[in-house]
Amino acid sequence: MAPHADDSVESQVDTRPQTPTKPEANGKQKSKGTGKGKGKGKKKAEQHTKERIQRLDQIYSKKKRENYFVPTPKSKANPETANHASHVVLKVRRIICDKGFPTGTEIDIKSEILTHALSEIYDGVEGTKLNEYPPEISPELLFHAGPGLIKRVEAEQAKETPNQTAIEEIGIALQYIAEDFESTTNNILSLSQHDEITFDLLWTLFPPNTPIYSRDNLLKDDQVFKLQQGTYECRNGSKFFAIKARCISHDGENLGWVDHELEIADFVGARKVQNLPYFPLKYHSDPKALSSELIERGKKFLDMTKATYMEYNGPAIAENQEVYLNNQYKRLVLHATGRIMLDPTTCLQQNTSTELLWPKVERELTVDRISESDFIFCNHCAGGFSFRQKKWCLFSINRMAPVVWNTNAFSKLVMDKQKRDLIHTLVRSHKNSAETFDDIVSGKGKGLVGLLSGNPGVGKTLTAEVIAEATKRPLYMLSAGELGTYTGDVERSLDQVLEITRQWGCVLLIDEADVFLQERDGLDLERNALVSIFLRRLEYFQGVLIMTTNRKRTIDAAFDSRIHFKLHYPDLSVASRASIWKNCLENAPAAAKQAKLNEQEITQLAEVQLNGRQIKNAVACAVSIALEEKKALTVQDIRVILDMVVDADTDEKIGSGK
To answer: Where is this region: Disordered (predicted)?
Structure first.
C-alpha cells in the first residue's frame, strides 16, 4: 500500500526528488533532437550546474583558532570557476573536526530566490537558519524541500513569461538533491513498495511539520503530533531516533503548544512503517476518516479547557499513582466511572505537583487562533476530578459523555411532600440569594447548610443525591473519615473540598458527620479542635452543604445557629417501603422487568422491616440473577435474596403473607 498523499501539508506529498525539464528562455520546451550537438549541450549544462554548486571542506585551525576552507576532494569542480561567488547558488560545506574526520554538512544559500522559496516551504518551522546571514540549511532539510521546490518550478513554467533565473536557481537545488541523494532515493523507492523503512532511513519519513500518528500512550488513544525535528542520538551505547514534536494542550495555566520528546529505538533490517511507535499520519489505514474524528475530538477538547461536568467510563491516569518497574517509575492506570469535572486550572491549583499536566505550554494560543486543520493536534486527554474515585486524573476525551440529568428524581423521593418541596426551593434559589445577601462582615453567611438525621437507610443520602440531580448541580459526596483524623490533615482537606465545591457550584454531602457535630467537652482536645476548625470554615462557606448524622441529640449547640434547615427521618413505614420497592423495580433493566410484580406481592415485600438501602441491594441482586438466567424478574427471585438478608434472629417468612 503506497503512502496516502495529503495536499494540505506540503511535506506530505511524494518525497522522491524530481528534476524538472528546463525550458528555453521563451518558456518553450527543448526539442529532443539528435546528433553530436545534443551531447555537447548536455555536458555543457552539467558543467554549468556543477560550477554553481561550490563544495568546500570547512577545517578548524587550532593554531589560528578559526575556520579555513579548501575544495572538497573529488568534487569535480572547475578550479578556474569554483571561487566565482557570483555564479554560486549553493555553497556546500563539509565540516571537518580537529582530528580530521567529517562530522556533518551544511549548505549556504547564495540565491535570494531559492532562500525565499525555502522560507515559504518552512514557514512556521522553528530552528531553521534561513533568516541568518548567509542563509543556511542542512542537506536533509533541502531534501525534504524537494516536492515544494518542484511545485514552484512547475508554477513558474506555467506562466506566460516565466522567470528563467528562478527556474534555473531552484533547478540547481533540485540537481543537488538528485545527485547527492541518488542512493537514498533509490532505497526509499524500493522500500516504499512494501510500506517499509530501515532505521538509517527513518529521517526521510519525518519532514518538519509532518503530522505524526501514535497510540503509544497509557490510555491507548489516537494522538497526532506536529513534528519539529528528528535526529539520531545515542544513550548508554544504544542508538535511537529522537523526535521533537508538539501537540495542543492545557497545562492548568495556558492553552497552547506543548513539546514532547519521542523515541524510536534502533532496529535491524526493514520494518513496516505502520509497526513503528510513531509514523506519519499519511501511512494510517484511513487517514481521512481519522482526521475527521480527531477534528471533532479537538473541538471537544477546547470546550473542556474550562470547568465541564461529564459522565465517564474508562481508564484514567491518576496523580501520584506510580510503580517502579524495569529501573524506572511508571504511572498506573485506574478504571474510573461515574461523573467527573474537567477543569485543568483547578487541577493545577489543587495539586502541589505539576506532573499530571506536564509538559508546560511553550507557545500560548487562544481558541480563535487555532485553525480547524490544527484541531487534529489537540491532546487526547484532559485533567479533571473523579467524584467517585476522589482523585485528580487525566481522562480520555473519547470516553466522555454529556451528563443526563434525572429531572424526575425529586418526585421519587419518599418523604413528606411539603418538606421535599421546601428543600428543593432552598437549594435552587441559593445561587441568587448568595449573590444578593451578605453578612455584616463581608463574605460570611453566604452558604446553605442542612442537617439530615435518622437511622441508616431512611433516605438521608438519597435526599442529597436527588437535590443535586433536580437542581443540576454536581454532587461531591464524602464521609468525615475521608477528610482525615489529625487536625492538620482535616484542615487542609476541608479547605480543598470547600473551595472546589464553591467553584463548581456543587452540593457537598458529608456523610456521618458526627465527629464534627458532636458536643465538645474539656477532655478530648483533638476532637474539640476539629469541631472548631469545621465551625470556622462553615462561617465563610459559600456553597451548599448537607450533613447527615445518626445521632441528632448529641449535636454541639454552636451548630444550631449555622444550620439553615434540619430534617429528621423516621423509620420507614409499610407504605414508605412499598413506594421504595416500586421505585427500585421501575429502575430495573428492561430485560429483567418484563413481568411486573402485582400490588399484593409488593405489599408482602413491604411488610418485611428493611431500610431503603437494603431494599435497593435486594433488587440489585435479584436483577443480577434474572439477567444471568436470561428470564424476567419474579417475586421468587427477590424472596431468595431476602431470605439471606433478613435478620437471622427473626422467624419471619416471606411470600406467604403470614
So the answer is: 1-66
Most confident of 79-88, 357-366, 412-421, 649-658: 357-366
Decide: helix, strand or coil at residue 624: helix
- How big is the CA angle at 656 (ends 642 and 577), to the nearest 5 degrees? 50
How far is residue 230's CA from residue 237's CA, in Å, rounded to a whole number?
19
The answer to whether 203 touches 185, Cβ cutoff 8 Å, is: no
CA–CA gap between residue 587 and residue 409 (Å, rounded): 11
pLDDT band at 648 (very low <50, low <70, confident <90, very high): very low
Give the pTM.
0.82
Q: What is the per-residue DSSP string for 64-128?
A: TTEEEEEEPTT----TTTTT-GGG-SEEEEEEE-TTS-EEEEEEEE--HHHHHHHHHHTTT-TT-
CA distance linking residue 221 with residue 319, whole number of Å: 19
In this predicted structure, what is the pLDDT of residue 277? 97
Omega before 134 within 30 of 0, i.e. cis: yes
Q: Are 168 and 35 in contact (CB under 8 A)?
A: no
d(CA 196, CA 272): 4
Q: Find the angle CA(283)-CA(287)-CA(293) to the nearest 5 degrees.
A: 145
Alpha carbon dihedral 534, 540, 544, 550, in 10-degree steps, equals: 20
- Beta bridge partners, 239, equal 234
What amino acid occupies position 170?
A: I
Q: Give the separation between CA 201 and CA 206, rounded to whole angstroms.
A: 10
The CATH number of domain 410-569 is 3.40.50.300: yes
Angle, in degrees to the nearest 10, between helices 112-121 and 146-157? 120
In the chain, CATH 1.10.8.60 sits at: 574-645
Cα separation, 585 vs 577, in Å, equals 12
pLDDT tens sequence across 289-308: 999 999 999 999 999 999 99
Q: Would you give the DSSP letter of residue 378?
A: B
* Of 640, 464, 626, nearest in space to 544 by CA: 464
Cell of 210: 509532518
CB 151 within 8 A of CB 9: no
DSSP state of 298: H
> So what's the pLDDT on residue 445?
63
Residues facing residue 67 across a β-bridge: 60
Report the DSSP beta bridge partners of residue 93: 56, 106
Give the H or E element holding residue 504: helix 487-504
C-alpha cell at 523: 477532655
